[in-house]
Automatic annotation (TrEMBL):
NCBIfam families the record matches: GGDEF
Name listed for the protein in its UniProt record: diguanylate cyclase
CDD domains registered for this protein in UniProt: GGDEF (cd01949)
Record lineage: Bacteria, Pseudomonadati, Pseudomonadota, Gammaproteobacteria, Cellvibrionales
One of the Pfam families matching this protein, by short name: GGDEF
Gene Ontology MF, one: diguanylate cyclase activity
Amino acid sequence: MYNHYQMQSFLNTTLEHLKKHKLHPIPENYKVWYEYTCTSNTELNEEIDALMAQQTAISEEICHKLLKKYFVSNEQKDFDAARLAFSHLLNVVISQISNWSSNHGSFCQALEKCTQKLNSDPSISEIKDIITDLTQEAKSMADASNDINSVLGSLNNEVKQLRKDLEQAGSEAVTDSLTGVSNRRGLDERLRNAIAEAQNQHSDLSLIMIDLDHFKTINDSFGHNTGDKVLKLAASIMKKNLRSSDFLARYGGEEFTVILPNTNLKSAVKVADHLRKAISAKQLSTGRNGQIIGRLTISAGVTQHRPQENAETLLDRGDKYMYKAKHSGRNRVISDSDLSSY
Ligand SMILES: Nc1nc2c(ncn2[C@@H]2O[C@H](COP(=O)(O)OP(=O)(O)OP(=O)(O)O)[C@@H](O)[C@H]2O)c(=O)[nH]1
């Protein structure tokens, strides 16, 4: 375990490397150079040293390759660790800023002392000394202030940029790149929180599992690109037809999940049926030559959270109802009230 000063020095050195190689301070680049600075991975250090010895510029691309090569075995775990290390080091920067601020405060105190001496009826030679001290203090304070202000300014910008990159990386990690709605990871996080809230507040919580019907036929008949567009369209129709408190996620493939906080089963069934109608209302055609795709339908399983139940059981039950809706002919909604034995 590193102490505060070691971490501080790793931070400075890592940032220097990023600056020297003109790399964006994003978590991935940070991970590579932080590991290099800590010399915790001999092979990585040897490879970077060899590249630098050949005068090879360590570009974003090389950083990405190094990241994949040395940390790919458990990418998610490493990425999370990098995010944690990053957050921790941001706190170190913030504490550095506050240290500098308190130094700045002590310069002001020294100045106040000189003023007090001047007010205590000093002799002419004492006044001369005070004036000399005062001039020196004022000069060094001005110098220090300039230095501190410029360091504070650049550090502040650095921190803001790092935080922005970190937030962006965090939000990318929970967003499905095709549809723009939450991905499975984001869903898991949100569902855990929604269950905890429902349990603490004794409130209702329902869930809808949705699967697009015969989606393979769209891909097979019109191509994968058209399939992708249909997926995006389905997600955007659903998003438009949900309240802002509801949470839509792409569960995977052509399956979506909606979390509905403060919603009982009856209302959730109405929402699912509303989504089903909204999606099938649109006659779809391909963009280029306007070939008719037809109407898209969905099968949905709706279930309400039961006391003490975890996310996995809730999702499983919603999934079972959704498959039941498929097997009962598709384009329909099946819920707890239809299948109480599940
Ligand atoms: N275009 C596209 N297709 C996807 C994506 N993810 C999954 N698919 C396709 O979705 C199709 C799902 O097919 P199936 O599981 O057989 O289901 P289905 O054809 O919708 O039939 P039912 O669910 O039984 O109504 C597969 O062909 C997948 O390749 C994606 O991101 N883009």
